[in-house]
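User: Hi! I'm working on a homework problem where we have to compare a predicted structure to a textbook description. Could you give me the structure for the chain below?
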Amino acid sequence: MKRSIEDTPIVFLGAGNLATNLAKALYRKGFRIVQVYSRTEESARTLADEVEAEYITDLKEVSKEARLYIISLKDAAFVELLPQITEGKQHALLVHTAGSIPMNIWEGYAERYGVFYPMQTFSKQRAVDFREVPFFIEAKRPEDVELLKAVAGTLSEKVYEADSEQRRSLHLAAVFTCNFTNHMYALASELLKKYDLPFNAMLPLIDETLPLIDETARKVHELPPCDAQTGPAVRYDENVINKHLSMLEDTPALQEIYKLMSKSIHEHHQL
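Assistant: Happy to help. Predicted structure tokens:
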């Protein structure tokens, strides 16, 4: 009898933001999560309880019977623990979920290996709709590429193959798109606090119901990002820009960010 993809026994090494969301999503699709490892007992136990798995805090206790090991650790911890992670798992498929680590990190440690990279920002407190999350797959063996695509395909229709160089560029672009954008929110919050104003005042610009920022997000579905750009820097309105810079005189670092961002926006619109 042919096994379904959901019969694949999976071990998660890591119980952070990405691992928590991914393990719970696979569990809801019927996958059998057999173990969850984390150095932190509370993290391991919490996630294991939610996916009906055993929790462990010692790599020596990791089952060698799983078919798929999904490693979602901090980059430095992953590199440090690589020999222990791979020990005794010659017949299993081992994958990491990092955007910035090349696939060849596995060479010399494993026979079957790859990358299973969901390009999204994750937090334990907020459930992610994986149907909208693109997965980027890479594996040493063609048959393992197909296995990983099948697993990802149970969660998302947006499943692509990408090599390590392509994935690095994706990760870098994601930092600009997501991390830097969120940092702008954080800086805006600090700026408003200085004037005794709540960050909630910005929510209408972010929310779907009263969109300006959300409208920009929607526009890039239809237009190139450069064409969707608005604001004083596009036309380099020096009157407005100088007024803003004068307001930031007591925060030189923020003033420098404003200058650099405005300069970059304007120069992109001169190309």
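For your comparison, note the following. Confidence is low (pLDDT under 50) at residues 208-213. The two ends are 60 Å apart (CA to CA). Good luck with the assignment!
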